[in-house]
Design goal:
By secondary structure, the chain is an alpha+beta fold. Helices cover about 20% and strands about 25% of the residues. One of its GO terms (molecular function) is Hsp90 protein binding.
Length: about 230
Amino acid sequence: MFQETPPHVSHAPCCHGNGALAGKPGGADGRGPDATFPLLLNPFPNHVRRGSCWGRPQDLKIAAPASDSKRLGAAGAAMARQHARTLWYDRPKYVFMEFCVEDSTDVHVLIEDHRIVFSCKNADGVEFYNEIEFYAKVNCKDSQDKRSGRSITCFVRKWKEKVAWPRLTKEDIKPVWLSVDFDNWRDWEGDEEVELAQVDHYAELLEKVSTKRPPPAMDDLDDDSDSADVTSN
């Protein structure tokens, strides 16, 4: 016959009475077919339960699984990274993107046919990471990036030229860190003849720009050209 006993008072793990005890089915204990034993509460505040045992955590050797530790570590690393503020604008043959990170180091830019992956660090060691799935296919072999003290600019060649992009991303969802560069956005119909020259000129200016000055806007290119003509005359 089963005999109910009080909790065993011990500081070591115990498996005999600090949990919920259920009666044997069918009245084998003499209490009837529906009888159950009462719930016995844990009388030791510093004890925890593992399975059917109560004891101190150090005795039960409770620890997080290694897989959980790795997952938490990866999540922490991902949370430490930030998205770089990104500006973009459309041209007949190219899509321009500017990742706004000052004094960037460890810059990595991967341009593929359908996406771009950007990462870097700033002067404070903060890591930035952006991954963008493009609205349409691009020609990764005819794309490039240039770095200045204020930002990293990428020129991405469209696979289908003279086709306007209504947005930069494949999905019709606008990330909070992505904005249109309205200073350089314009109606480009009939403007494709001068675009390649602008790209080359812009790349040269980026190489020469001071680390304390922002990269020039596309509208400034015409001003530079006019100034050069006036000087030469």
